[in-house]
Amino acid sequence: MSLLLPGWHGEVLSHGLVARRLGVLTDYQLLNGCLPEITATNESELWLLCDAQARLAERVAVAEAVRRQP
Known about the structure:
It is built from two helices and three strands. The protein has 70 residues and is of the alpha+beta class.
């Protein structure tokens, strides 16, 4: 699968495509909408969803850091 972003592993399944994160999400990221796995019907859709999830995970990580500040 050539279109995946760094940090994701993709494979073709009988019902479509799936991408899984190579890294681990924090509990805070998981509670705030970040997904460890994404499914799609084609590579373009999968790339867009992985991109959106990567950006979300980055923003949520910043929020998590801000939350820890006094």
